Amino acid sequence: MKSDRKFRHLSLFSGCGGMDLGFRGDFKVNKNFIKTNQNKINSGTFIKLDRTNFECVFANDVKNSSKIFWEHNHLNENDIFMHASIVDLVKKHESGEDIFPKNIDIVTGGFPCQDFSISGLRKGFNSHKSHRNDYVIDNKQETRGLLYIWMKKVIEIVQPKIFVAENVKGLKNLKNIYKTIKKDFSNINKGYKVFSKELFAPDFGIPQSRRRIFFIGVSQEFIDKYNINLSDKDLFPESEFSKEKDLFNQKNLYPEAKNCFINLNEPEDETSDLSQQKFSKAKYSKGQGQSVVNLNGLAPTIRSEHHGNIEFRYLSRKNGGNDLKDRRLTVRECARIQTFPDEMEFVFNSQNGSLSASSGYKLVGDAVPPLLSYKIAKKIEEFLFKYL
Q1: Separation of alpha carbons 217 and 213, rounded Å
Q2: DSSP code of residue 41
Q3: How far apart are CA 314 and CA 320, in angstroms?
Q4: pLDDT confidence of 341, banded at 50, 70, 90?
Q5: Which of 65, 75, 283, 312 has its CA 20 to 30 A from that of 53?
Q6: CATH number reported for the structural domain that contains residue 141 in this entry
Q7: Enzyme catalytic residues
Q8: Using CA atoms in the order 74, 147, 369, 54, what is the torsion angle rounded to 10 degrees?
Q9: How does pLDDT run across 228-258, given as a tens digit for each residue?
Q10: Burial of 138 (0-12, 13-18, 19+ CB in 10 A)
Q11: How far apart are CA 126 and CA 140, in angstroms?
Q12: CA distance between the termini of the chain
């Protein structure tokens, strides 16, 4: 492997950088979430993953909370983050401004999913929100439901070898939309060979029942140049865990949610980490998002709702649990279930800005789990090193 080769990474819809952190590597995860033959296991609860050869040179998001997060958590040391809508950035490029870096190897982005999610109104392409997330505008091509088109435009501009796009599993049920998006991605420039696959997060060590659709496209020019007989197995990581012990395929059992709560104080006992102190005070009620976390199994999918629709960890006896207080997951607990390292702060007050628990929940829930992104990055890195 040519370890000195760096792959230039352009990130869109970056949020709190879950995809970007995974593509960079060099962060800590619970050792129970990693197969022991993959990395050197350090003593203690956490291990640090290897640094990849991807280098993020550009990131963007329209949300102010993302800008504040990147600056506070030192992700923007090289001023790579642009606080702007992707639509506005493309328009500036088209007017002659120098917006996007040159020589990009890979573009990644999770284009907004609210209009495709089963937990939303499923407006699809007929979204009533604009690209700035306010209410509808005259130009229908600039609605939130069509932002994948603007990701497509960026890919046309920077011409990467590979792109990775992520969205909710509900997109696949909207068959005409799903097929249209895949076709549009395939027709970029001189063509991209596009594969799509639903990934189940526990298969890769993430302890929650999260399913997401990933599109991975490879430039036809790159394929032709190296005469590549390409398949999805070249680009998507293989599952490493399973519901049942699988000795033949050397797969471990799914990781348990209880590993996410190791060495965490209860909110009232926490003195320094605001992300662990803060949690939704919404009362217990039955319905979507009100389930109890099974500590000996998988956690529910961590979502971005910030209005109390966050799963309970505990239940009192009157609500069918033990003699514990009813309380929602803290922001830190949600972040750990998503495999973010504790070094990242999601609730804070600083001179340069602050983030509330509400904003922290949304950022965490919107993110691609960094560990899942890391597994994808390592597979794509392996593919690129075969030819570069």
Answers
A1: 13
A2: P
A3: 10
A4: very high
A5: 65
A6: 3.40.50.150
A7: 113
A8: -60
A9: 999 999 999 999 998 876 666 667 789 999 9
A10: exposed
A11: 8
A12: 9
Give residue 340's Cα distance to chain centre: 10
Sign of the C-alpha dihedral computed for residues 80, 86, 91 and 94 taken in this order = positive
Q: Where are the beta strands (DSSP E) in the chain?
A: 7-12, 28-30, 46-48, 54-61, 81-83, 106-109, 162-168, 192-200, 211-219, 241-242, 252-253, 312-314, 327-328, 348-350, 353-355
> Directed axis angle between helix 175-186 and helix 147-158, to 10°?
10
pLDDT bucket at 76, cuts 50 / 70 / 90 = confident
Q: Is residue 345 one of the residues assigned to a domain?
A: yes
Contact 275, 364 (CB under 8 A): no
Domain, as residue range, for 308: 255-366
**CA nearest 48: which of 39, 58, 57?**
39
* Per-residue pLDDT tens over the stretch 359-379: 999 999 999 999 999 999 999
Tokens 């700035």 belong to which residue? 132
Which residue bears the tokens 């990701």? 151
Same domain, 268 and 308: yes
Measure the CA–CA gap between 126 and 362, rounded to whole angstroms: 23
Q: For residues 20 and 7, what is the distance between their CA atoms, to the nearest angstrom? A: 13
- Provide the angle, in degrees to the nearest 10, between the axes of the packed helices 86-94 and 147-158: 40
